[in-house]
Design goal:
Layout lengths: L6 H30 L5 H10 L2 H10 L1 H19 L6 H16 L6 H26 L9 H10 L1 H17 L2 H4 L14 H7 L5 H23 L1 H4 L8 H14 L8 H15 L10 H50 L4 H11 L6 H71 L3 H31 L8 E4 H16 L4 E7 L4 E6 L1 H17 L4 E11 L5 E10 L33 H11 L5 E5 L3 E17 L3 H12 L12 E5 L3 H10 L6 E5 L2 H10 L4 E5 L7 H10 L10 E5 L6 H8 L3 E4 L4 H11 L24 H10 L7 H8 L2 H13 L1 H14 L2 H17 L3 H15 L3 H21 L1 H7 L4 H4 L6 H16 L3 H11 L9 H12 L3 H7 L2
Parallel strand pairs: 2-4, 8-9, 8-10, 10-11, 11-12
Antiparallel strand pairs: 1-3, 3-7, 4-5, 5-7, 6-7
């Protein structure tokens, strides 16, 4: 592999050469001074004293053991040529170099403590140990190893050892990486070197190198022992032969032997044994004496001269040829494991760049591993592609599910305020006799219902994308549909100088079967589009029909023509693209998202039709579509204009469909305004409406009372409608197990009916509640003997007159001066100023306990109940006109549904602060409810016995969970003034009762 050589590479080799030359020259000069035996002058003595071993130590520490060994070989050659008897001394230099290299690899020169240990070792090795060895060579045996002598030699080496270690320590511990990079061994001390480079440089970490070193070391020991034991046989100097006697005896044996008869190895070997036995008497016995010590010491040093370089060279070769390629390959394999699937291509490229060429099994292993890695990467990529497809599918499924959840939440959010608006508007239609008011209220009712349809329109695009949109055929009155279309078109045209022209065929059958909502949605989108892009002229709506071969099927045809800006031919394809708006710059003031035409196209496709468009740029456009519809009644719709006027004064005037004063209905909803609306809708039917504000209260009521039908809100805190229904069915004490239960919900999405039926409901009513559907559901389950229908004896339809009473006027004066609420919005939601005052009072009295419930759930991490609590706050705050508080609660409800804990943690303190601020905003209501007003001071003081009896009755009702009866007791007590020492307790009782806190009430009433 071609490696790029940078400038530092050549500088490093230059430094190596300079250090090698200086070290070799200084070492040779100093050794020649010692070997000459001449007296040394002061300069020569100082040079020998300070630079005898230190240059080799420094060279080894900076450049490694190979340059030092090469320097020692040169020294060995010089000493052999000058004074061969002292060549063995080179062994101590080589051994010292090997030790220094080990210290360097072990990072001894990085810290002061370990550097000191290295210095002490050099003092011991070059002082005490080498001094003792020289004593042996001088013929003094082990005398120089004596403590006194050894310590002297140890201290004597302090200057040289300190000088060498200090130089190395300063460079490696204090100098920057740039300076350390000038030396080959600096790799052990640099922090800018990768782990693989450091590992490959340190062959201590190579098991292969350790094994090779161990084998060579064992062989060296075996060789030394063998040489020492058989020295007297192998070395002539160890023999002291008695030449004459031995030679005569040997000669006699040789003469007496008939060598011609010796024809085999065995006989020859026996003859040699006889001659050796005669010669053995001339050998000296091997024993431990001065001569053998000198010989063995020299032998060991000479063996070191051979063994250590051999070991180092073998290690280096094994490291370069075997260990390093394997380590690089292993590091590459580890990278695949560490980085996993993230760096497959990068790791594979690095593996290819290893380019190992050793012409042996290692290269073969590398080649096979590279092929295996390529196959593995290909396989992993294939698995990743499959996983990506699976993840994309799961993501799409998750997105669809998220959309459905969003639709459910959004539907509930938007429908809840509309519920109150249309509910109270329905009460106006029922109770007013003024034709103008009926006309206005009818327009409100029609537009409000259209608004609900538009809410569904907005959500339809997501439903269609998720494949959840269904076409649901129902019977419908075509006149009513046309009425809604024309009404909404008129409202859209307000403020624009446009003429609405209608051309409605009079012979179209009036009752048809089809998806009224989807047909109306398609027509309304096209009409709205025409009005938006027409600034002058007219919009013409033409509706007629065409007969088909099937007499029960007609082709209902819609045509909408305008005199607007028209569409260019090149923009036709963009007309149906989602979120695309034609000529955005020109029409930037026109409202819209660009979804309308796309929704129309897709809905018509679901109904087997398509939208036809013709347009002339600058003159106008014409849209048309036809839909097959089943005919239910052939009666023609007639003149639409007169039918429309009649519908306002006739069909839209409310008349209850039955009276049932003996019927009992239970309505369960956590929002007081919703309960008030249903009570108002059923007012004319004379049905007895019992209410409960929670699932727990409902469970208590079904065990105490028998009802004909139960209406149960889906979303409630602590126990929702589904959980409440299941609990009802499991209770043995329940008196209403066979009573049908209907769900009340604002989450009307695809599959809602099936879901509620599956959970055990008899059906469901969507919010806002339609009075006809509400009465129809009740009428289906009531026994005939308690029902009075129009025309029956005793059935009198009563419509109360409208007007503003003194109670409303008083409430307007109070509510208009309060901070934090919109009294007009609150009055609309609650059905009037007086109702708003009552609802706001209950809201104020429950702030403390409800805020504490939210805070407790938040701090406990109980996000399920937290979400339910803020959902209740959202609804109750919106009903009284506290829009900002309601919006914040709605945001945190979404966070709870989406498990967005970070936002919950961030915004909940703000919610609690704003919520509790309403205790100050609504303080006049709290004071009035607490009995501290001026009016209350004029009330008679309640008698002690009456107070005691009232509290006893109150406790009994609370124990039985009869909160309506408990409210009656408190209402009675409000007619009296409470004793001063009881006012605080009475105030707390009213707060707990408003919050329906049974346990709190029982504690305070003990």
């Amino acid at each position: 592999m071609n490696r790029k050589r940078d400038k530092l590479f050549y500088i490093r080799y230059l430094v190596l050469i300079v250090m090698f030359v200086l070290t070799t020259w200084i070492t040779i000069i100093n050794n020649l001074h010692i070997d000459s035996g001449d007296d040394l002058n002061q300069l020569q003595f100082a040079s020998v004293y300070l630079f005898k071993f230190s240059p080799l130590i420094v060279l080894t520490a900076f450049e490694g053991v190979l340059p030092s060994i090469l320097s020692c070989f040169i020294l060995f050659a010089v000493k052999t040529s000058v004074n061969k008897e002292l060549a063995f001394v080179t062994g101590i230099y080589i051994l010292g170099a090997a030790s220094t290299h080990y210290f360097t690899m072990s990072e001894f020169f990085k810290r002061k403590k370990t550097a000191l240990i290295a210095m002490l070792f050099f003092m011991l090795f070059y002082g005490s140990v080498w001094g003792g060895c020289l004593g042996i060579l001088a013929g003094r045996g082990f005398m120089e190893f004596a403590p006194g002598r050894s310590f002297f030699y140890f201290i004597n080496e302090l200057p040289e050892a300190f000088l060498a270690v200090a130089i190395i320590y300063i460079v490696y511990a204090k100098c920057p990486n740039k300076a350390k990079a000038l030396f080959f061994s600096g790799v052990y001390y640099r922090d800018d070197v990768d782990e693989l480079t450091r590992k490959m440089a340190d062959y201590r970490k190579s098991k292969l190198s350790q094994t090779v070193s161990f084998i060579i070391f064992v062989q060296a020991i075996a060789l030394g022992l063998a040489a020492a034991i058989f020295a007297n046989t192998l070395i002539p100097n160890m023999k002291n032969s008695l030449q004459d006697e031995v030679n005569i005896e040997v000669e006699v044996i040789k003469k007496n032997t008939d060598w011609r008869k010796i024809t085999n190895i065995i006989a020859l070997e026996q003859q040699v044994s006889e001659i050796e036995a005669a010669q053995s008497t001339g050998y000296l016995l091997l024993e431990l004496n001065s001569d053998t010590l000198i010989f063995d010491t020299k032998l060991i040093l000479l063996i070191l001269v051979v063994v250590i370089p051999l070991s180092v060279l073998t290690n280096q070769f094994a490291q370069y040829r075997i260990a390093r390629p394997i380590m690089r390959l292993a590091d590459s394999m580890q990278a695949f494991y560490d980085m996993g699937a993230k760096g497959l291509d990068e790791n594979l490229q690095k593996l290819r760049e290893l380019d190992i060429h050793t012409d042996d099994e290692i290269e073969y292993m590398y080649s096979n591993f590279a092929k295996t890695a390529e196959n593995m990467v290909g396989y992993i990529k294939m698995i990743q592609a499959q996983k990506s497809l699976a993840d994309a599918l799961r993501f799409q499924q998750s997105a669809n599910e998220a959309k459905n959840n969003f639709l459910s939440s959004m539907s509930h959010e938007i429908r809840t305020p509309i519920n109150a608006m249309l509910g109270f508007n329905e009460m106006i239609l029922r109770e007013s006799k003024d034709p103008e008011i009926i006309k206005y209220a009818s327009n409100v009712n029609s537009s409000g219902k259209m608004l609900l349809g538009l809410v569904n329109d907005i959500l339809d695009f997501s439903r269609i994308e998720a494949g959840k949109t269904e076409i649901i055929p129902v019977e419908y009155d075509l006149s009513s549909m046309i009425n809604d279309l024309i009404n909404t078109a008129h409202m859209r045209m307000k403020g624009k100088n446009l003429e609405l022209k209608t051309n409605i065929s009079t012979d179209i059958p009036c009752m048809l079967m089809g998806d009224e909502i989807r047909i109306k949605q398609c027509a309304m989108n096209v009409i709205t589009n025409a009005i938006k892009y027409t600034n002058e002229g007219s919009v013409t709506i033409t509706i007629d029909h065409k007969e088909t071969d099937d007499k029960d099927i007609i082709l209902l045809r819609f045509n909408i023509k305008d005199t607007g800006i028209g569409i260019r031919k090149e923009d036709m394809d963009r007309l149906f693209a989602p979120f695309e708006r034609i000529e955005e710059d020109r029409n930037r003031t026109v409202e819209g998202t660009g979804l309308g035409m796309n929704i129309v196209k897709q809905l018509l496709a679901l109904m087997g039709s398509r939208l036809l468009v013709s347009s002339e740029y600058g003159k106008g456009s014409e849209f048309s579509f036809s839909i097959k519809q089943k005919v239910i009644s052939r009666n023609p719709i007639g003149d639409f204009a007169s039918t429309y006027e009649e519908s306002l004064l006739g069909q839209e005037t409310y008349h209850e469909s039955f009276h049932a004063p003996e019927a009992n209905v239970l309505v369960v909803d956590d929002t007081v305004a919703n309960l008030t609306v249903i009570q108002g809708l059923l007012k004319a039917t004379q049905v007895k409406v019992d209410t409960a504000e929670s699932g727990l209260e409902a469970l208590e009521k079904v065990c105490a009372n028998k009802y004909n039908i139960i209406f149960l809100d889906h979303r409630m805190p602590k126990m929702d409608g589904v959980e409440t229904l299941h609990a009802m069915k499991e209770m043995d004490e329940n008196l209403n197990k066979d009573v049908p239960v209907y769900a009340l919900t604002a989450n009307v999405i695809s599959g809602a009916r099936e879901m509620y039926l599956k959970e055990g409901f008899a059906g469901y009513l969507p919010k806002p509640i339609d009075s006809a559907k509400l009465e129809d559901a009740i009428l289906k389950v009531l026994p005939d003997d308690i029902v009075l229908r129009p025309g029956d004896d005793g059935f009198d339809s009563v419509i109360e007159t409208d007007g503003i009473g003194a109670e409303d006027l008083e409430a307007i004066g109070i509510m208009s001066n309060l901070t934090g609420i919109d009294p007009d919005e609150g009055a609309k939601n609650c059905g009037g100023p007086a109702a708003l005052k009552n609802v706001a009072t209950n809201f104020a009295l429950s702030i403390e306990s409800n805020a504490q419930s939210i805070e407790d759930a938040w701090k406990a991490g109980d996000y399920e109940n937290y979400t339910t609590y803020v959902h209740g706050l959202k609804s109750s705050a919106r009903v009284i006109g506290a829009s900002e508080l309601s919006n914040l609660a709605a945001f945190l409800e979404k966070c709870g549904l989406n498990s967005d804990v970070d936002e919950i943690e961030r915004r909940t303190p703000e919610l609690l602060e704003n919520y509790r601020q309403y205790m100050e905003y609504l303080a006049p209501l709290i004071e009035e409810a607490s009995g501290d007003s001026e009016e209350d001071m004029n009330k008679p003081l309640i008698e002690p016995e009456e107070l005691k009896g009232a509290l006893t009755s109150l406790r009994e009702f609370v124990e039985g969970s009869y909160f309506d009866s408990a409210d009656d007791v408190v209402s009675m007590m409000d007619d009296y003034r409470m004793p001063d020492d009881f006012k605080g307790t009475y105030k707390e009782i009213k707060k707990l009762l408003a919050a329906v806190d049974r346990d709190g009430l029982l504690d305070i009433l003990k």
